[in-house]
Design goal:
145 residues, alpha/beta, 5-stranded mixed sheet, 5 strands, 22% strand
Length: 145
């Protein structure tokens, strides 16, 4: 079953609940799971300060505001595409992604929220849970362009 972990700035508890519910719904659709499998999907919110070393460079340089890591045993290009396309607008509107300040918006320096999200997909290769990882930084934004 999918395991979803969001590394981002602090998100209020009420918003975490809404985000978790929506990410589970997205995973159900993208991974073609049955409705009763929703309770087997895990969503975890982590502060950016606890991000794994492989994400540190993206988050610390300010290139990305959030990294969404998704692990599952049966990932395909179609499933990944569906998940990224559905999750990008959701996360772009959330407080997990840093938005431009008022002065930056006035000066026209607004950052594209979709480009502030990095995706990492991990494929579980065995029952023991070992994984192979590959990332899709800017994948959704580049695909839309």
């Amino acid at each position: 079953m999918p395991y979803i972990r969001l590394y981002s700035r602090e998100v209020p508890l009420a918003e975490k609940r809404i985000l978790a519910e929506k990410l589970i719904a997205i995973a159900l659709g993208a991974f073609r799971l049955r409705p009763e499998e929703r309770y087997q999907i895990t969503v975890q919110f982590m502060p950016r300060s606890m991000s794994p070393e492989r994400f540190d460079q993206l988050l610390r340089k300010g290139e990305k505001s959030a990294v969404l890591e998704v692990s599952d045993h049966d990932l395909t290009v179609d499933k990944i595409s569906a998940f990224v396309e559905a999750a990008t607008p959701l996360l772009s509107e959330s407080t997990a992604v840093q938005h431009s300040g008022a002065i930056a918006r006035i000066l026209g320096w607004e950052r594209d929220p979709a480009r502030q999200i990095a995706f990492q997909f991990n494929v579980s290769t065995s029952a023991a849970g070992s994984t192979g990882a590959f990332g899709l930084n800017d994948w959704a934004a580049d695909r839309a362009a």
